[in-house]
Design brief:
Layout lengths: L6 H23 L4 H27 L1
Keywords: Membrane, Transmembrane, Transmembrane helix
């Protein structure tokens, strides 16, 4: 049985937050075009999904 206080769960959450912030950085500070905005949104949602999966791992244990 894995403990909910396992640091690997929180590393996944932090990784998801950083990926999401990178997506926001791309959307806000790189030259605005439709393609760049779509890539930024996709990266932001991927980061959110990673962070949510980390939270679900904590809640499951």
């Amino acid at each position: 049985m894995v403990n909910a206080n396992n640091p690997s769960h929180y590393k996944v959450i932090i990784l998801g937050v950083f990926v999401g912030l990178f997506g926001i950085y791309i959307k806000q500070f790189i030259y605005h075009s439709m393609v760049v905005d779509l890539i930024g949104w996709a990266i932001t949602f991927i980061g959110a999904a990673i962070a949510i999966s980390g939270v679900m791992k904590v809640l499951k244990d």
